[in-house]
Design brief:
Layout: E1 3-15, E2 28-29, E3 35-38, E4 44-57, E5 61-65, H1 72-80, E6 87-93, E7 96-99, H2 112-122, H3 127-141, H4 156-167, E8 174-178, H5 186-202, E9 205-209, H6 213-219, E10 222-227, E11 230-235, H7 237-245
Parallel strand pairs: 5-9, 5-10, 7-8, 8-9
Antiparallel strand pairs: 1-4, 1-6, 2-3, 3-4, 10-11
């Protein structure tokens, strides 16, 4: 069983080289999202998230809506453990997998085969687990003999196929995504779509940020609308999507 529970969670980022004198004792909204202000030590801060309270459990497929800078990426990074809350409490039960940056850790001087082990390790796989999966990963990537060539010799499409093949071999209980992954030419794209559907179906909780009305309606059973780091609306996709996009 997987659970995500937030109780009045706030995330602040201190800006150490900025003067806070003009911001003293007040917070103000800014167009790029979040809020500017100062903390008790007089440091300028950016408040990326403020007062988030919600609970997710098995079966939830949650879409994150909001303009650029609304806090979607910060929330995903908070869920993945990259950030810690400044205030409030979080409870996360279940192993978390992230498809936020599928090329993270790829070494362009190493071969594709070596990078499968590197990327697999970053995803929490043991060397033995990668060894058991490596042939299926290579086959899925369609790299052929190029798998033993340095990644710097790859085209952009080959690089993405390698990263996608490795990143989607894991089946986490909680899956985090920033938009739907779709890579490669038309033939590989169909394979990628089918693989993504398998990954999403197997996960207990999905949290995906997207600007696509169709994707949210097709994939999610709940939507959080973020605005300036706060939850403006939390509800059924039909209700939130209609309010966010209009009509």
């Amino acid at each position: 069983m997987a659970i995500i529970e937030f109780n009045d969670v706030t995330v602040d980022f201190p800006i150490y080289n900025a003067s806070g004198r003009s911001l003293k004792k007040r917070l103000m909204s800014v167009a790029t999202g979040g809020q500017l202000g100062e903390d008790q030590q007089g440091r300028v801060i950016v408040r990326a998230l403020e007062g988030l309270t919600f609970k997710l459990s098995d079966g939830d497929r949650v879409g994150l809506l909001g303009h650029n800078g609304a806090g979607k990426s910060t929330l995903l990074r908070l869920l993945s453990g990259v950030y810690a809350p400044t205030a409030g409490t979080t409870r996360i039960e279940g192993d978390v997998g992230s498809l936020l940056d599928i090329s993270l850790g790829i070494d362009h001087e190493a071969t594709g085969r070596e990078n499968i082990f590197i990327r697999g390790g970053l995803l929490g796989m043991t060397r033995a687990e990668v060894t058991r999966q490596i042939e299926s990963i290579i086959e899925f990537s369609e790299l052929g003999d190029f798998v033993d060539m340095p990644v710097r010799t790859y085209s952009t499409g080959m690089h993405l196929r390698l990263a996608f093949a490795v990143s989607t071999v894991v089946r986490p209980e909680i899956l985090l995504m920033d938009e739907w992954l779709s890579v490669g030419d038309e033939n590989f794209k169909h394979k990628a779509e089918a693989r993504m559907a398998e990954v999403v179906q197997s996960t207990h909780i999905l949290v995906i940020a997207s600007h696509s009305r169709e994707l949210i309606m097709h994939t999610c059973n709940r939507v959080l609308w973020l605005e300036h780091g706060r939850i403006r609306m939390d509800g059924a996709p039909s209700d939130v999507v209609s309010a966010y996009f209009g009509g």
